[in-house]
Amino acid sequence: MPTSAPGNRAGFTLLELLVVVAIIAIASAGVAFALRDAGAASLEREAQRLGALLESARARSRLTGQPVRWVADEQGFHFEGLPRGTLPDHWLDAGTRVVGRGILVLGPEPVIGPQAVVLTSTAHPEQALRIATDGLRPFAIVPEQP
Predict the structure, then answer these.
(1) Are 41 and 32 in contact (CB under 8 A)?
(2) SS3 assignment, position 92
(3) Pfam families from the entry (predicted)?
(4) What is 38-143's CATH number, 3.30.413.10, 3.30.70.20, 3.55.40.10, 2.30.38.10?
(5) What single DSSP character describes residue 63?
């Protein structure tokens, strides 16, 4: 059953081509948004995890009345003042590094001084995240300004 003008013709109409191009554009945009930069996602995951660990150590310090310090080292990090094995002491991604001084004092006082630590990744050294507190609020993740 013919759907266009009589006669034999080969090819597609302009409308058919535009529909196909639009479908391809929408599909490729969806794929681009779905695929995040793995390095940035890994660094963000590490920062969120560290923020939670710091808050946990801060709460334990206040509960026990014992001072707790977070110290970054070559193998990862550790919490001084807590029994070994209480909290994790390594990065999930071996390429995670601390920029600058890697020591935070987490308690036991309810109000601690403003503190921050900057994380970066060996895979993406241009990206950095700061985990910081003003001493009253919980540790939060802030993009590091270059």
Answers:
(1) no
(2) coil
(3) N_methyl
(4) 3.55.40.10
(5) H
Domain ranges of the chain: 38-143
25's tokens: 């554009």
User: SS3 for 122?
Assistant: coil
Residues ≥6 apart with Cβ < 8 Å to 83:
none
- C-alpha 114/C-alpha 111 separation (Å) is 9
Are 128 and 99 a contacting pair, CB within 8 Å? yes
The per-residue pLDDT for range 61-110, each reduced to its tens digit, is: 999 999 999 999 888 999 999 998 899 999 998 889 999 889 999 989 88
* 0.90 surpassed by pTM: no
- How many whole angstroms separate alpha carbon 65 and alpha carbon 87? 17
